[in-house]
Amino acid sequence: MTPEEEKLASRRNFLWGKVRSEEEPNSEEATEQGGMSASSTAPGAYLLQLARKAMACQFEVYLNAVGPGTETEAGVAALDMVTELEQQLSAYRYDSEICMLGATAYLRPQVVEQRLFELLQLAVQLHRDTHGAFDITAGPLIKAWGFFDREGKVPDEVDLAEAMSLVGSNKLTLDESQRTIFFQKEGVELNLGSIGKGYALDRCRELLREAGVEDYLLHGGTSSVLAQGVRRDGTPRDGWEVGVPHPLRPDRRIGTVHLNGEALGTSGAAFQAFFHEGKKYGHVLDPRTGQPATSVLSATVIAPTAALADALATACYVMGPEETEAMLPKYPEVSVLLVKEGRRRGSVETIMLGGMNERLALVPTSL
């Protein structure tokens, strides 16, 4: 092996990668990870899987392959980009661009990197379209409830009121001509947790497209999925099969959808919550009231981009059925699944909007 070949091999092994085949024992399903699946039945149909920890979750890239090749390098490069974006977007790194804006943008307008500026513009537009249900300035509220440190607590009235005084994307002034942002009040901060993973997947898609990769599935933390092309295993398919997680039973699915050139985002609080005096408080907060959202158990959105799917999944979870249905004419390419508690203990009911009933194949035993 030449020095250059050794370098490439080392790079591939930098993260854990697997090439799986239906010829291998116990591989009836090529991969199943947190509700996402890509099945294969053809002998010799390989699936290449690459993964890396980033943004407090695991990002994964799935590629059709007969063995490691040039597409592998593109997959690794995509994960490299996720690592770079984490440094820019993280609210947990004091030297990230997001945190630096919080420390300076209330003093004077600050120039923002072009792609990040475009993301902030999208977030502000979503804030308007959802009447405040989606809000990237909810950081002080997240901290008041202890979710930033993953130690949930019920805030007292004074702390909650102070946090609410700092929340609202109307406190952000974006100047497109100068590409600057200005915070109208000291203490305003940005938290992109509800859109950042999806944005990272969209950027990965751009990189893979430029590298000529036609078929792939990407996911971040299993709640954000983006797929392009098809799973080439000899079986006729319309895209990649993706499982929609059950909001109460992590080992089950509500159903499956097929994605091709689309993304799916899911928001829910069943497994990220705390109890106080016998009451359960979920981590998805309504920025308009300062309280945990309780309208539904989960919201799943299919959209053209992963950033939009992630953001609208959070917004729809906060808004509930009526507000979501009223919003959807603004987003004709979006489909929504809302899951509510059923009449029987432990059961659930589904509400499908925007053509989701034509996309989702329900698992009967899940309801």
Automatic annotation (TrEMBL):
Catalysed transformations (reactions): L-threonyl-[protein] + FAD = FMN-L-threonyl-[protein] + AMP + H(+)
EC number: 2.7.1.180
Cofactor entry: Mg(2+)
Stored SUPFAM superfamilies: ApbE-like (SSF143631)
One annotated GO molecular function: metal ion binding
Keyword Transferase among UniProt keywords: yes
Keywords: FAD, Flavoprotein, Magnesium, Metal-binding, Transferase
Region spans: Disordered: 1-39
Gene3D superfamilies: ApbE-like domains
Pfam families assigned: ApbE
EC category: transferase
Name under which the protein is recorded: FAD:protein FMN transferase
Species per Swiss-Prot/TrEMBL record: Blastopirellula marina
Lineage of source species: Bacteria, Pseudomonadati, Planctomycetota, Planctomycetia, Pirellulales
